[in-house]
Design brief:
Blueprint lengths: L4 E7 L11 H10 L4 E8 L6 H15 L5 E4 L12 H12 L4 E5 L4 H9 L9 E5 L6 E3 L2 E3 L8 H8 L5 E4 L1 H4 L3 E3 L11 H18 L3 E3 L3 H8 L4 E8 L4 H4 L6 E13 L2 H15 L8
Amino acid sequence: MQRRHKIILDCDNSFGLPGRDVDDGLALLYLLGRPDIELIGVTHAAGNTTVSAAVHCTSRMLERLGYDGIRLGMGWSDGNTDRHETDAAKFLVQSAEQYPGEITVVATGPLANVSAAARMDPGFFGRLARINVMGGRFTRQKVGVVPIGELNFSRHPTAASAVLRAPCPITLFTTEVCLSAPFRWWDLTILRQLDPWVARTVLIWMVCFGTRYLHHAIYLWDVLPAMAVTHPGQFETVPCRLGQQHSSHVSEGYLSLSDGRNINRVRSLRNPARLLQSAASAWRRAAPRVRVMN
């Protein structure tokens, strides 16, 4: 029997909200569409939207696409840095206790929930299989000619610093490498094979993003750490240690390197086109276009 990876997606999903990014939702669709993934639950933090709106977006996606029985957890809300015993943090702790050494956390939003789980249970990190993280940057980046900000680590720098020092395997996807995974206008043929609501939501975001950045592509961002669970060989990683960060740099999502090997940083994608094909295959299984027969 094929081994199924036990996954918790920790995200700030805004899929379906006007003018908001779709990458968390596409990461969720990827995990749902993989037969070798067992999605234990989805935890939420404020980021792309409020935490309550993020939970609503995930709930609506699952309901529209016919998925039930997946646990949803509400976690960190923007501005509330002290409260750590949230439903999301409790669920993370309970899941790690129930499946020691088996859970991979795919973290695609601010890291407040993961950090809060470790504050609740000092042994939390030691019971995880690994954490795949999307966030941070080493240099200022642009989409086309327009500078872009960093929206994960910068939202809760203290949590990001705590998680990146965790004593468990960590794979880090920074802004630099994510910009090498575009979804271009000529990739829109993929959408024809998906549920119309999903396809329309992605198309609307492409128009919004293109107008905002004068650019012909969106980026897979949060899909990549989800894909690293099932396609680790498609990512070239280098061991590294993050240095001490100046507070003003962390608040903008900047990272610096030091000596040592406590995390694996993804340096490049071996075959971006093949990764997109694999993502599209999983999306089709999770959200197929249903043709009504006469």
